[in-house]
Design brief:
The chain has seven helices and no strands. The protein is flat.
Length: 198
């Protein structure tokens, strides 16, 4: 009678010490599942297993599409886990924010060129003259603006991030300034006129 009580107290104390004891290094870090749970997982796998090769391909494609959608969403939000290497780092993030907080002529270039091409279909001497003059002028303005943005970003980034790698940041900012705002990835965090927030 007394022995049973002492056995139960021994087992409870040993259980407490086992819980308090840290897991050994190199262990799996989780308890071994019960046999019933393992059997249940195995049965679920058998149920969801593809019946033939076409079904297997379909499942693989569905998983890949889901993964791509997840990556796209992460890139759009600016999640560093999904960003390509060229977009990573505080310097690139600063360059994106700098460009996104300003109105750039280059971001409207495609729209302006589309209008110019449409107008050129009207066969009059004036429209033909405009079609000859406007594209080179637009190109000059955009190149000048891109050069100024590139130089400004290099100067500001060098002052703000003295210990970071600045290689290619000017070209990165200039390229982003040429993209239409809606098509920029990651999605702009700042709108035009938010210069003071950076």
């Amino acid at each position: 009678m007394f022995r049973r009580g002492s056995d139960s107290s021994d087992t409870s104390s040993s259980a407490e010490t086992a819980e308090a004891r840290p897991l050994k290094e190199g262990g799996k870090g989780r308890p071994t599942p019960k046999r019933s749970e393992a059997e249940k997982v195995r049965r679920n796998r058998l149920v969801t297993a593809p019946k033939d090769r076409k079904e297997a391909y379909r499942q693989v494609r569905a998983r890949q599409a889901q993964q791509r959608a997840k990556v796209r969403e992460g890139m759009a939000k600016g999640d560093t886990r999904y960003l390509p290497k060229r977009d990573q780092g505080p310097v690139r993030e600063f360059a994106r924010d700098y460009v996104d907080s300003r109105r750039t002529f280059g971001s409207h270039l495609m729209l302006i060129m589309f209008v110019v091409v449409l107008v050129s279909f009207v066969q009059t001497p004036l429209t033909q003259l405009l079609f000859v003059i406007i594209p080179p002028v637009l190109l000059f303005v955009v190149l000048t603006e891109s050069l100024l943005i590139s130089q400004k970003i290099k100067k500001l980034a060098a002052a703000r991030f003295p210990n970071e790698q600045l290689k290619g940041v000017g070209l990165y900012a200039a390229t982003r300034s040429l993209q239409m705002r809606r098509l920029r990835i990651p999605t702009p965090r700042y709108g035009p006129g938010d210069k003071d927030k950076i």
